[in-house]
Amino acid sequence: MKSGDFVLTIIVLGLVVFGVIMVFSSSYYNAINDSGDPYFYLKRDIVWAALGLGAMLFCAMFDYRMYAKIAPGILATSVLLLALLFTPLGITRNYATRWIGVGEFTVMPGEIAKIAVIIFVAWYLSKDPKRIRSFTKGVLPLLGLSGVYFGLIILQPNLSTAITICGIIIGMMFVAGLNILYLVGIVGIGAVGITGMILTDEGGYRLKRLTSFLDPFQDPLGDGYQVIQSLLALGSGGLFGVGLGKSIQKTLYLPEPQNDFIFAIIGEELGYIGCLLLIACYLVLIWRGIHIAINAPDMFGTLLASGITIMLALQVVLNIAVVTSSMPPTGITLPFVSYGGNALMLFMGSMGILLNISRRTVR
Question: Using an 8 Å Cβ cutoff, are 27 and 42 in contact?
Fold first, then answer.
């Protein structure tokens, strides 16, 4: 058995270390404002990174084929956790109920749902590869699964995670051999459905978020404020940046700079060159994921690796698109770099699964 994909391991560990540094840099003033401790987010991020490393090592050693045996159970658990959001265990922050837990210990079921869906779809399509060619036995059940997850997650509300999960399922179906006409039809229906949901929103909240990115300066103190501060940060960085730790926008101008908009602080402090190097690291990581999927020893491994790689690629593209005002704000984190324990553990564990698949690849 091989030792695993060395390049993937180095890139992931490098991104995690870089993420810890940038979380500290971007959150310094926000941490003082929130808790009085400038190291508040740094200490938490280090703990989550350590737990993520443990999850990555475990998943790298755990035989990925075992996930196929418990795939339905993983899916059922994921749906149950999403349902618990609408009980007293659900925790509401910033008008969204996305966490369950007691006290300081919280879990984001939406993050768990991503890997649960990947494992289940990989098992479902690999168990009978001909299913994907049948509309009633392959396409329709998976569309129904997408609908269930979309409905449970959009009620939080969390449109970005709902779209990501649907994108993962459709992407895996395409890898498995989905007819291109079905693919076009599914994407078209989905686009119409989301557009209808936005236009019929009673408060007009979703429509405002959708249109604010087109010209954020129309409402500089409202819906466009965060995007404007993000663009100012990126523009201030220039080619080489103002220097690590010297960002101006993180001094309570850009809200929650350590989370979804950390890429803007990276652009300000490390410049265009720093952003390009970070994107290059993600491209190498995606390439290694594709390589592992192509060379996996069985179809379950191929679909599992494909799903994880699609999840990674989707979140990178969506996050950077939002920060650069290329699409409406979605609330998607930047993998391995943004602050957030649940997301960090999910991605590091997922990379462990990729490593395990790569270890079993025949030379």
Answer: yes
Total number of domains constituting the chain = 1
Q: Quick check: is 166 in a domain?
A: yes
H/E stretch holding 97 reads: strand 96-102
Sign of CA dihedral 56, 342, 75, 310: negative
The reply to whether omega before 109 is within 30° of 0 (cis) is: no
Give the range of the structural domain holding residue 216, as residue numbers without chain letter: 6-359
Contact 31, 38 (CB under 8 A): yes
For residue 1, being part of any structural domain is answered with no
Could you tell me if residue 103 is left (phi over 0), alpha (psi between -120 and 50 degrees) or otherwise beta? left
Distance CA(292)–CA(294), nearest Å, equals 6
Q: What are the per-10-residue average pLDDT scores of the chain (363 residues)? A: 79 95 91 87 92 94 92 92 84 75 75 93 91 84 89 81 89 86 74 66 60 68 79 88 88 85 92 94 95 92 95 92 80 87 91 92 64
Residue 330's CB: how many other CB atoms inside 10 A?
A: 18
For the stretch 323-335, pLDDT in tens is 888 777 777 889 9
Nearest Cα to Cα of residue 265 among 250, 282, 276: 250
Show the tokens assigned to 216: 């954020």
